[in-house]
């Protein structure tokens, strides 16, 4: 951030003159986007008042770290808290109010109605700038038994505490994970490491929705190799309690478990925005421009509740991820404090660990390419993570997609027991730059036997993709 | 490569008509660039004759793999050979002639004079296209004792065999490595792993020439931590034999060793080209264009003997590395066979393992920035390889350089006990695209606790660099 200069400029522009009231910035939501916004606003304008309204008792925690923390009995979940409310107040001068639920926005009066969940009272809080960082919620199917004890989402730190407590204090021998996306896969990995017999249930006919068949197949092999059964094409029907056990009815089968984790997706929390008439985008999340402004004057949105500009699609999209939330929060906070920052957009990069493998993707998948009617070519390649015969060398599989008539890279996915996520970052950088596969193949990437073969898998994948493009043109 | 289409086109254009002689492509040099060129020419034009003249007995080996192979008693150095001469002849139809030294080129007569080192005879070989892949040689200072047994360069596979044989067969307890660049550091690492007491001698006042002081300091700390003494500011004076030992006199000190590895640099083998009046570039290596053509008609050059277009400098440069050699060889071979390929240029990317650390760089270092009179700003940042508290999280240190008035990224260097080389590749990709630090800071990079903190060190480094730029502008 060009903070050094910008904050100087802004400070002089917002100094209190003759005791005029300082600008009040109200942030609804106090996790990644919310606390980034609050901290950034404070930094940009030390004279403004920043109030954070957080429904939960916890603020500023790393939700992405929760599965791994649950898997490590030595660690406390408090490790994931970056900043507690007391420190935020005393050291950063942010008025953090926990257990406060914003229930309505009055745009005309410029105030937000707040329910104090602790005292069960209600009050109106005026704002000069409002930042919506209301996040996303786990989708919980309205099926019988979904509210039973032992059935958990994994979205809030409180969810994580409940799961970790149950694993520690009761005899969890069997678990069912419902949904085979990122969180489901991470939880299957973690629970398996904890010596709990895990079954994964997925409504679709394959794990890892949005990934290419080759990646899906290798992920499935890894799950099988680790002894984790996956029931695909199996929709959850109901859960019933039987003594201290849960019976999970999915598809035609019933699975006994003491712990159930539901991870079938998330949806943006947009009730507050919608109630105020703030525009939502086609994705259903809050529409924003690249300054993180919403359709309402002086109201910003950031994080899992908001859309982001997708640089590959050239249109807004909704992909709820922690990195994006942090970055959008910073931009929203800076701009609410008078700066003129821009969010650089997303390209759809994500990665996770799947037992002994890394899996990552960036850009568009085949499903998105089809949905947006893009004429594209895909190509699969296998190569090595390190030099041939170097210890730790492992096969990597890469899928690339490129636009047929231009050769422009559209997306890449990779799986293997080597450095995958940081290789996907090379593709992500190429997507930001709008490179063609030929340009990716020309990249001067690092090579030494402990890190890479002489032609990095990224270059091999681009070359194979370029050949596929050439064949498809004939 | 767009091989599928190109080769079809070319084949039809070069078919033998009425028994006309096929085109003969002669390649001088049979390692990375030479064999890449020969294989590619063969693939592009199956009717041409391809002759490879190789001075050594070995062809097509990975020189970069030699230190690591020496360190592994279980592996044979033959592991590093990608393709042997017999297979090249029978399966690829390449006329590989080993122990053949090209001594002169007659450009007018289109022939090369060859000394058969096996039979000690001489002959002239006519060519239609000539590819120079003569490589680079280790610089050996002309000092007393430099030719003693036990004193080695590490450039050819035969050098590696001699070193590995000596380590295996004689009692090597002490070794001296002369020169603290990539190869010197790798050899210090490897010899130390083999339980040999290593001393590193460096003429300059620091290890890792070309790296920033912060990287150099951390590399020095790692060497000290591993118990490898480094004598900086110590020029080699002479080596003498004393019984089965060698006494290495450097600076004011004398070091006893049984094995000495000299790795003070390499120089391009350009005698053959120079003798024929082929133009050399400012670097002293053979001047080439982006089609790998030299100043002489139908003569190409590729690999460690040739210059390459440096995309950051916007001018040719000479950086001898295996990746570049392979890529240039492919382009030279394709074009000698009638194609129209272009080499995409280099940005100066390199990496190596230093004991428990990875070290890598891309783009310009401070020395090059100064030499070319570029007005630049540098910034150092520390961050983490993984999420806070995630097992294996390690500190990473990054240095970035950017052009002062544009903010354009000029180079990056990184050191640490995490994924470094593949993070440097993100900077390398950004250099290819000509990105500013602000654009790098906007990259949508992968995040998950096992791989990265929420703000990847690449993003942190770009942000710190951007702040330094802003400060420097005030």
General description of the model:
Two copies of one chain form a homodimer. With 474 residues, the first copy, chain A, is α/β, with parallel strands linked by helices. Chain A has three domains: 3-136 and 267-336, 3-Layer(bba) Sandwich (FAD/NAD(P)-binding domain), CATH 3.50.50.60; 140-264, FAD/NAD(P)-binding domain (3-Layer(bba) Sandwich), CATH 3.50.50.60; 350-473, 3-Layer(bba) Sandwich (FAD/NAD(P)-binding domain). Chain A is 29% helix and 27% strand. Chain A has 13 helices and 25 strands. The first copy, chain A, has helices at residues 3-14, 32-44, 66-70, 85-92, 157-169, 182-193, 213-225, 271-275, 322-336, 366-371, 421-433, 437-441, 457-473, and strands at residues 24-28, 49-54, 95-98, 100-106, 111-116, 121-126, 129-132, 136-138, 151-152, 174-178, 197-201, 230-231, 236-242, 245-250, 253-257, 259-262, 266-268, 299-301, 308-310, 315-317, 350-354, 357-363, 376-384, 395-403, 409-416. A five-stranded parallel sheet of chain A has the order 3-2-1-7-18. In chain A, strands 9-16-10-11-12 form a five-stranded parallel sheet. A five-stranded antiparallel sheet of chain A has the order 21-22-25-24-23, sandwiched between helices. In chain A, α2 runs parallel beside α9 (322-336). The radius of gyration of chain A is 24 Å and the shape is globular. The two termini of chain A are 47 Å apart. The model of chain A is unreliable at 1-18 (pLDDT under 50).
């Amino acid at each position: 951030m060009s903070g050094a200069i910008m904050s100087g400029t802004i400070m002089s522009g917002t100094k209190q003159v003759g005791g005029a009231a300082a600008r009040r910035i109200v942030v609804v939501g106090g996790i990644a986007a919310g606390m980034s916004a609050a901290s950034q606003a404070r930094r940009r304008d030390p004279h403004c008042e920043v109030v954070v309204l957080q429904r939960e008792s916890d603020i500023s925690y790393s939700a992405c770290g929760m599965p791994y923390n649950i898997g490590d009995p030595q660690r406390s979940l408090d490790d994931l808290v970056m900043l507690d409310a007391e420190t935020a107040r005393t050291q950063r001068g942010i008025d953090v109010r926990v257990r406060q639920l914003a229930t309505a926005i009055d745009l005309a009066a410029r105030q937000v109605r707040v329910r104090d969940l602790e005292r069960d009272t209600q009050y109106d809080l005026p704002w000069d700038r409002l930042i919506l960082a209301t996040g996303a919620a786990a989708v919980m199917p309205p099926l019988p038994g979904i509210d039973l004890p032992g059935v958990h989402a994994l979205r809030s730190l409180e969810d994580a505490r409940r799961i970790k407590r149950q694993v520690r204090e009761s005899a969890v021998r069997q678990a069912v994970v419902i949904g085979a996306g990122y969180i489901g896969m991470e939880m299957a990995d973690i629970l398996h490491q904890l010596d709990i017999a895990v079954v994964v249930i997925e409504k679709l006919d394959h794990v890892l929705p949005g990934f290419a068949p080759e990646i899906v197949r290798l992920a499935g092999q890894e799950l099988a190799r680790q002894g984790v059964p996956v029931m695909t094409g199996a929709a959850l029907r109901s859960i019933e309690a039987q003594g201290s056990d849960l019976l999970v009815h999915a598809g035609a089968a019933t699975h006994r478990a003491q712990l159930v984790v539901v991870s079938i997706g998330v949806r943006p929390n947009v009730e507050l925005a919608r109630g105020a008439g703030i525009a939502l985008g086609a994705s259903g999340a809050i529409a924003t421009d690249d300054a993180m402004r919403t359709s309402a004057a002086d109201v910003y949105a950031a994080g899992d509740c908001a859309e982001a500009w997708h640089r590959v699609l050239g249109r807004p999209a909704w992909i709820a991820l922690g990195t994006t939330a942090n970055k959008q929060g910073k931009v929203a906070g800076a701009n609410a404090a008078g700066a003129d920052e821009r969010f650089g957009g997303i390209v759809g990069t994500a990665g996770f660990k799947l037992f002994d493998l890394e899996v990552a993707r960036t850009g568009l998948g085949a499903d998105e390419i089809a949905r947006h009617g893009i004429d594209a070519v895909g190509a699969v390649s296998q190569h090595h993570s390190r030099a041939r015969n170097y210890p730790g060398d492992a096969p990597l599989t890469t899928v690339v997609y490129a636009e047929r008539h231009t050769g422009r890279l559209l997306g890449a996915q990779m799986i293997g027991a080597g450095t995958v996520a940081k290789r996907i970052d090379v593709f992500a950088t190429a997507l930001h730059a709008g490179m063609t596969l030929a340009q990716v193949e020309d990249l001067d990437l690092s090579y030494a036997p402990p890190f890479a073969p002489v032609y990095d898998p990224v270059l091999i994948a681009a070359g194979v993709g370029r050949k596929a493009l050439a064949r498809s043109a004939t």
